[in-house]
């Protein structure tokens, strides 16, 4: 008899959870967080990703609420507990994902997500952009760099003094870029590649020597030209002195 009841109880569990959330005033919003569609580059990197801001998602019913971004590993989504407050040890970034399967960050109010969106405004959130607080346990809500490629799933959760009041759906899995280890970069695939590197180095040295020789020649020619002009000007000065003096005065004396 108990075996017959077990499948039905398992089927009723999601419904019971939904009813429990409704009893506590938690509103399910028909919005799924997505990666930004902005033309900006770097929407995903090795430690960050960029989301669209949840504009026109939360209503005036959540005016007094603080909106948080929840970042979790996919395994934590099914049993995520909304009642665990942000800033606690169970939601600290510094323990994610080794000890905590989720953390909460980027808290703000609905005033920072105005609706409608002003024309031309870039409305995105970069997750993982704070490096200064990544290891600071006094900042458990740090928006620190993500520790690996993931995947990760996110949602927005609105909390007020009485607890959670509204939440979005969970995003699809978000996978970050993976940096290639240096050993896998094909810089030396063959002896020909190594020879090309050696030849390039030799040519660079020869070019430097040639350039130094050219500079030395220009300096030598310049100093030689300067010395020749001074030698040429000296006889001119002597010639002028001969021409200007006694001959003129002698002619005048003779006429007198």
TrEMBL record:
The yes or no answer to whether the keyword Magnesium is present is no
Which InterPro entries does this chain map to? Answer: Uroplakin-3
Q: Where is the signal peptide?
A: 1-25
Annotated TM spans: 196-221
Q: Key word Signal present in the record?
A: yes
Give the UniProt entry's GO cellular component terms: membrane
What UniProt keywords are attached to this protein's entry? Membrane, Signal, Transmembrane, Transmembrane helix
The record's section on PANTHER family has:
UROPLAKIN III, UROPLAKIN-3B-LIKE PROTEIN 1-RELATED
What is the name of this protein? UPK3L protein
Taxonomically, what lineage is the organism?
Answer: Eukaryota, Metazoa, Chordata, Craniata, Vertebrata
């Amino acid at each position: 008899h108990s075996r017959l009841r077990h499948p039905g109880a398992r089927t009723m569990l999601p419904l019971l959870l939904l009813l429990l959330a409704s009893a506590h005033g938690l509103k399910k919003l028909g919005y799924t967080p997505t990666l930004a569609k902005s033309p900006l580059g770097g929407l995903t990197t090795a430690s960050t990703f960029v989301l669209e801001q949840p504009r026109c998602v939360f209503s005036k019913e959540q005016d007094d609420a603080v909106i948080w971004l929840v970042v979790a590993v996919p395994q934590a989504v099914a049993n995520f507990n909304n009642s665990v407050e942000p800033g606690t040890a169970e939601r600290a970034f510094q323990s994610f994902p080794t000890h905590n399967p989720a953390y909460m960050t980027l808290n703000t109010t609905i005033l920072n997500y105005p609706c409608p969106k002003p024309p031309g405004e870039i409305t995105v959130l970069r997750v993982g952009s704070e490096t200064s607080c990544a290891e600071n346990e006094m900042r458990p809500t740090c928006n620190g760099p993500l520790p690996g490629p993931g995947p990760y799933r996110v949602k927005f959760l609105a909390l007020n003094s009485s607890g959670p009041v509204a939440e979005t759906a969970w995003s699809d899995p978000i996978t970050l870029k993976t940096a290639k280890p240096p050993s896998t970069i094909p810089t030396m695939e063959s002896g020909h590649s190594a020879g090309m590197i050696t030849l390039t180095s030799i040519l660079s040295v020869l070019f430097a020597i040639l350039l130094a020789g050219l500079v030395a020649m220009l300096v030598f020619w310049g100093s030689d030209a300067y010395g020749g002009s001074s030698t040429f000007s000296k006889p001119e000065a002597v010639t002028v002195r001969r021409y200007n003096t006694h001959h003129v005065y002698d002619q005048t004396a003779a006429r007198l």
